[in-house]
UniProtKB/TrEMBL annotation:
It is an enzyme of class 1 (oxidoreductase). Its EC number is 1.17.1.9. GO terms for molecular function: formate dehydrogenase (NAD+) activity. In the C-terminal section; belongs to the prokaryotic molybdopterin-containing oxidoreductase family. Residues 6-61 form the 4Fe-4S Mo/W bis-MGD-type domain. The keyword Transcription does not apply. Its cofactor is [2Fe-2S] cluster. The chain holds residues 213 to 910 of 933 of the full protein. Keywords: 4Fe-4S, Iron, Iron-sulfur, Metal-binding, Oxidoreductase, Repeat. This is Formate dehydrogenase subunit alpha.
Length: 698
């Protein structure tokens, strides 16, 4: 019978950074159902995406043959999900023809204009090995550091602040440490929707006596479980956090011993927060002074306080400043370096941590070795037998601007969908369309692939083996359960074929050969052998040698900075780049919803998930609906200075009055057409969480 699997394969969920382990139940090369496994991050639990979001892999829209754009078909950006129209735009080709064209064109641009005329986007949906090989190809085959991925759009500002302040961009403590904390602070994150299994650990901790403090302009479901919920005004994070630090300083709740022995720069921070009394900040952030005082005392004086944050913190022009404040809070109170304390930026995609570790970022080689550090560069030049560009490359949004300026002429995009995920997406689409040559490697005809010259059909998550690193720094093994359909090939093979066409004589066999090379060049995972992963399924890094069990909690003795000391960096209030005005009087906040994943290319093709949330929606406060004369379910038009979309209004009192929340997964109402591409100056992350809009019925 169809319902009886003929094999079971243990792997990892393809969606969020929690990294839940699961088992695929397979019959005749089809996944029948998925069950949770007893992995370190999930202990058997799965959310709706992990449990029901698997049949995208079998969807009839899967790309099964290489495609080449037909002569003379314009790159209009007029995307369609209708597979019958695909062959109006593209013709099928052999792998040999497609690779020769893709590689040949990019090599031609490199030879004529130099490597700086090329760029690559890798993917946090791919494995560590794919990320590593992709950035190595761009650096040694293209000859440029213009390589980036979606980390730029989610936690680049957090990482920038963490590297600057404590010397490491990864989390200090795993999510599960909330069960050992006395106080849990969740700010700018909606774990129930975006990290659902992590949210269950938080709720369990609350049930066992931990005090949860939720700070967020949107009242998430988690706020129902909070000891205190502070609905501060959008864009006022620094005002609120500096006011909390003011209380801690003036009431002498600081940890003097920790500050003296383990940090530098405290005096400057103390001087800075003197200006931010709770009374002065209350009207700015919308939280009364006494509540600010109460929460500050609670955080500072508990036996263990842990902070978790998400993109509500990071996706602002002051995202790095927001994270600097969170780091300073933990340092001044000594709430870091012990179990049940610390800093945890919740990672979005299942491998955004690993892809960043593997060097899929323009200013860093693998293991966060700076490209402009001669010693680091020399090590990788020796390991790779190539000369590396000492100049940091361009970031995601900068690459789109460089296309506009005629500097970048060719791109290779693996598994990312900037036509949907970039801010000011109309601009991004026009830039992609203007490229001389665009190669896209993906499993579906995404909105980005629609603008390509050559499309290379790739493998879905259950169709390959590789390692993935979750938000806790756990390196986990994803195992192949089914074969790719038709002529679709595994991404690792495709990257190597492209490398060969660009003159690199690569011939890696099994994926473990790539992982072994990573171990040799990345000290943090030096002790994680492939055999160990096959045996245990997961090992946490830092893991320096084969006898090391790995370190779930770090910074216990020292920080990985010069002198071993963390650094306070003060922050002042910087307003959003685009404030509401008479023409655009409301605020747009974008993000994800429970059932759909990022740009929707996978989950909107998963039967159960699509059935639950089939249509584009905007979450609007009932008072705003009433004021505008709009009934729930009615179509509305949302417009910003950059574009407009039509979608359905849903009454939702978790959004603050005057602010509207829209998920970015719906191609027919691609909300990033409206968002603002203004960047945080340090992390170069765009301001997805704030721009000015106008809403009208119809
Ligand atoms: Fe997958 Fe994240 Fe859900 Fe776990 S919590 S099942 S990793 S989407």
């Amino acid at each position: 019978a169809l319902s009886v699997p003929d094999k079971q394969v243990d792997s990892v969920c393809p969606y969020c950074g929690v990294g839940c382990q699961l088992t695929y139940n397979v019959k005749d090369n089809r996944i029948l159902y998925v069950e949770g496994r007893n992995g370190p991050a999930n202990l058997g639990r799965l959310c709706v995406k992990g449990r029901y979001g698997f049949d995208y892999a079998h969807h009839p829209h899967r790309l099964t043959k290489p495609l080449i754009r037909r002569e003379g078909v314009p790159k209009t950006g007029d995307f369609t999900m209708d597979p019958d129209r695909v062959l109006d735009v593209f013709r099928e080709a052999s792998w040999e023809e497609a690779l020769a064209l893709a590689g040949g064109k990019l090599a031609g641009i490199r030879d004529l204009h130099g490597g700086v005329a090329l760029a690559g986007f890798g993917s946090a949906k791919g494995s560590n090995e794919e990320a590593y090989l992709f950035q190595k190809l761009v650096r040694t085959g293209f000859g440029t550091n213009n390589v980036d991925h979606c980390t730029r759009l989610c936690h680049a500002s957090s990482v920038s602040a963490l590297l600057e302040g404590i010397g490491s961009g990864a989390v200090s403590n795993p999510v599960m440490d909330v069960t050992r904390a006395e106080v849990i602070v969740v700010i700018g994150a909606n774990p129930t929707v975006n990290h659902p299994v992590a949210a269950t650990w938080i709720k369990n901790a609350v049930r066992s006596g931990a005090k949860l403090v939720v700070l967020d302009p949107r009242r998430s479901e988690l706020a129902r479980h909070a000891h205190r919920y502070l609905q501060f005004k959008p864009d006022t994070d620094v005002a609120l956090l500096n006011a909390m630090m003011h209380v801690i300083v003036t009431e002498k709740l600081v940890d003097d011993g920790f500050i003296a022995s383990r940090t530098i720069g405290y005096d400057e921070l103390e001087r800075n927060v003197a200006e931010y009394s709770p009374e002065a900040m209350a009207p700015i952030c919308g939280i009364d002074a006494e509540t600010i005082r109460y929460v500050a005392r609670l955080y500072a004086t508990s036996r263990g306080s842990m902070i978790l944050w998400g993109m509500g913190v990071s996706q602002h022009v002051h995202g790095t400043d927001n994270a600097r404040c969170l780091i300073a809070l933990s340092l001044m109170t000594g709430q870091i370096g012990r179990p049940g304390t610390g800093l945890h930026p919740l990672r979005g995609q299942n491998n955004v941590q690993g892809a960043s570790d593997a060097g899929l970022i323009p200013m860093m080689l693998p293991d966060y070795q700076r490209v402009d550090n001669p010693a680091a560069r020399a090590r990788f030049e020796a390991a790779w037998g190539a000369t590396l560009d000492p100049k940091p490359g361009l970031t995601v949004v900068e690459i789109m601007d460089a296309i506009d300026a005629g500097q970048i002429r060719g791109m290779y995009i693996m598994g990312e969908n900037p036509a949907m995920s970039d801010p000011d997406a109309n601009h991004a689409r026009a830039a992609l369309a203007a490229l001389e040559h665009l190669v896209v490697q993906d499993i579906f005809l995404t909105e980005t692939a629609y603008l390509a010259d050559v499309i290379l059909p790739a493998s879905a998550f259950p169709e390959k083996t590789g390692t993935f690193t979750n938000t806790d720094r756990l390196v986990q093994l994803g195992r192949q359960a089914i074969d790719p359909p038709g002529e679709a090939r595994q991404d690792l093979w495709i990257i190597q074929q492209m490398a060969n066409r660009l003159g690199l004589p690569w011939s890696y066999g099994h994926v473990s050969e790539v992982f072994d090379e990573m171990r040799r060049t990345m000290a943090s995972i030096g002790g994680i052998t492939w055999e160990r992963l096959e045996r245990n399924g997961a090992v946490v890094y830092p893991c320096m040698n084969e006898g090391d069990i790995g370190q779930p909690v770090v910074f216990t003795e020292t920080f990985p900075r010069e002198g071993g000391k963390a650094r306070f960096v003060p922050a002042d209030i910087i307003p959003a780049d685009e404030r509401p005005d008479g023409d655009y009087p409301m605020v747009l906040i974008t993000g994800r919803q429970l059932e759909h994943w990022h740009t929707g290319s996978m989950t909107r093709r998963a039967t159960v998930l699509d059935a639950i949330e089939p249509d584009p929606v905007a979450l609007v406060h009932p008072l705003d609906l009433e004021r505008m004369g709009i009934t729930p379910g009615q179509a509305i038009t949302i417009a910003s200075r950059r574009g407009e979309v039509v979608l359905y209004a849903r009454a939702d009192d978790s959004s603050p009055v005057g602010a509207i929340f829209v998920p970015f997964c719906y191609y027919e109402a691609a909300i990033n057409r409206l968002t603002n591409a203004a960047l945080d100056p340090f992390g170069k992350i765009p301001e997805f969480k704030y721009c000015a809009i106008r809403v009208t019925p119809g």
